[in-house]
Amino acid sequence: MNCFVSQQGSLAIWIAVNTHPNRERSAEQNLRNQGYEVYGPVIRKQIRHARRVSDVLRPLFPGYLFVRLNDTQSRWRPILSTVGVRSVVCTRDVPCILPVQLIDDLKAREKDGVIARSVSSPQLGETVRVGRGAFDGLAGKIIDLAENDRLVVLMDFLNRPVRVKISSDLLSVV
User: Fold this and answer.
1) Which of 46, 76, 116, 135 has the fewest CB atoms within 10 Å, i.e. the most exposed one?
2) Do 164 and 109 share a structural domain?
């Protein structure tokens, strides 16, 4: 991430905005009403409640939205007083600029306005092995899908079953 001071030219830029808990949609609407272009990627998640399963849309990055500004000289301070917004992600009071490629890549993964999980993602019930990190080499069974490309894996650790949330890119199917 770069900050305003290191950017040259007058190209459109994206910044990250931190929202109040569970207020992403409210902040998004209020920012749009002020004329900002806002991007809040969502994923589809299955929710189980009272023996019922339903699909709901959840933010890919809970508590964050992306706001497009026309250039580094754009007025960004009014964002701070927007209902639903907690802060702008900054370094030394200067908003950090996100790589345009990040937003383009997220938008490219969308299908019908929802970020699609990768086709090669492991499925429930599959046995996987951790490739690196604290659980390197351990195997387990996928028991649930979590947000942000994380999986809930049941592993045998110290002779007892342990549920671990782990990023899918650390796993390989056995």
Assistant:
1) 46
2) no
State whether 9 and 42 are in the same domain. yes
84: left (phi over 0), alpha (psi -120 to 50) or beta: left
Number of domains in the chain: 2
**How many whole angstroms separate alpha carbon 106 and alpha carbon 124?**
24
The H-assigned helical ranges of the chain are: 24-33, 100-108
Residue 27, Cβ density class (10 Å: 0-12 exposed, 13-18 middle, ≥19 buried)? buried
Residue 7 confidence class, pLDDT cut points 50, 70, 90: very low
Residue 167 structural domain: 127-173
Give the pLDDT confidence score for residue 9 in this predicted structure. Answer: 46
Mean pLDDT (whole number) for 149-167 = 85
> Are residues 152 and 86 located together in one domain of the fold?
no
